[in-house]
Amino acid sequence: MGSNSCPEGFGSGRRIMIVTLALFFALVSGGFWPGSGFAAGNVTISGSTMLFPLEQVWALAYMKSHPGTHISVASTGSGFGISNAANGNITVGASDAYLTKEFRQRYPNLVSIPIAFDDAQVIYNIPGLDKKTVLKFDGKVLARIYLGKIRFWDDRQIRSLNPDVRLPHTRIRVVHRADASGTSFVFTDYLNQTSPEWFNQVGRDMSPAWPTGSGYNGSDAVVAAVMSSPGSIGYVGLGWVMEYHLTTGALKNLDGHYVVGTVENIRAAGHAALNDPSFPDDFNRSIVWNIHGKNVYPDANFEFWMVNTNLDAETMKTVRNLVMWALTKGQASRYTVKSGFAPLPFRPLKPRLDKIINRLLPGNGFNERSPG
Fold first, then answer.
1. Does the structure show a pLDDT above 60 at 23?
2. Whose CA, among 95, 124, 172, 237, lies 20 to 30 Å from 111?
3. Confidence (pLDDT) at 318
4. What was the pLDDT predicted at 86?
5. Average pLDDT over residues 120-139
6. Residue ranges, CATH 3.40.190.10, the chain
7. Is a pLDDT exceeding 80 seen at residue 77?
8. Span 209-223, pLDDT tens digits
């Protein structure tokens, strides 16, 4: 169960990207959307490797239209994004994981703001299998693979879910994240809710005690490992699947349907969650598994930006304008869908976002009476 970094030359351009942006943005009226204003400064966004592809596209769009403010975007893992935002080392932390009760107690100065939908997908490299073949997985079988109890691709438990697929007697090479990862949080959330074995032995975590397999730092390294290792299995977000044309599996959802992770099916999961009257206004609840619907992908999640409420006023203004852009113009399909994310439904979300930005950040640049 070693830890590995990304092989040299693979994905290095995606790990860290520094861009120059300007943040001059006229906001629409109503609710928390204040009048036009100008904010300039330095912003550092760091964290989720799953979210990184979208942040790159957003950054480039800003760079093209608004020169002036310096913004750095880094792919470091959700764990680092959360902790560094809380400690004041970065301006915005990016995370695939919501703020659980434990996180809220540990980091009371953080506020999480949903900015897109994404998912965790199972990827694999099986010799002799047509790349267009979509294997079916349920949580119990996936958990037993990641527990080291299913060791070969032609195991009867895998074949029982895929009776029409001829699977080779190839040893399964388990690949997982080694760093504190929101993608791991989302992936193990699915295992935790569908497999009693996983629930009792490992659980949901950003850094679980993996019983087997090889660990890699970052989604790019996971992709490289799976692509270069015959017999391997791993997990990444849809953005990485789209960029590298990866073979992915279909996961069994709550209603018994096997669903692949597409933008439409991720959106179906998110919209179903938001239509639940009991869904919390602060978004601090998993949308993995417990969502009904034929086309609902069962391992979907909100992507979050974490903001430290102790930021100075000028920086908070800059962050606010950036968040406003991400939640409005940034939701356009040319940014979200093309990057492998589902856009947020603005109208149903607006009242909840009002509460987050106005009430959870009193006295800061998010206050609706702030001049901008």
1. no
2. 237
3. 78
4. 96
5. 97
6. 14-118+302-359, 121-274
7. yes
8. 999 999 999 999 999
Residue 333 has pLDDT above 70, yes or no: yes
Which tokens belong to 206? 């950003």
CATH number belonging to the domain at 121-274, selected among 3.40.190.10, 3.40.1000.10, 3.30.450.150, 3.50.50.60: 3.40.190.10
Reported as a single tens digit per residue, the pLDDT across 262-277 is 999 999 999 999 988 8
Six-digit token pair at 204?
Answer: 């949901």
Query: What is the mean predicted confidence (pLDDT) over 204-208?
Result: 98
Strand order in the sheet with 300-308: 16-21, 69-75, 42-47, 92-95, 300-308, 110-119
Helix/strand/coil (H, E, C) string of the chain?
CCEECCCCCCCHHHHEEEEEECCEECCCCCCCCCCCEECCCEEEEEECCCCHHHHHHHHHHHHHHCCCEEEEEEECCHHHHHHHHHCCCCCEEEECCCCCHHHHHHCCCEEEEEEEEEECEEEEECCCCCCCCCCEECHHHHHHHHCCCCCECCCHHHHHHCCCCCCCCCECEEEEECCCCHHHHHHHHHHHHHCHHHHHHCCCCCCCCCCCCEEECCHHHHHHHHHHCCCEEEEECHHHHHHHCCCECEEECCCCCEECCCHHHHHHHHHHHHCCCCCCCCCCCCCCCCCCCCCCCCCEEEEEEEEECCCCHHHHHHHHHHHHHHHCHHHCCCCCHHHCCECCCHHHHHHHHHHHHHHCCCCCCCCCCCCC
Determine if residue 9 is left, alpha or beta; phi over 0 gives left, psi from -120 to 50 gives alpha, anything else beta. Answer: left
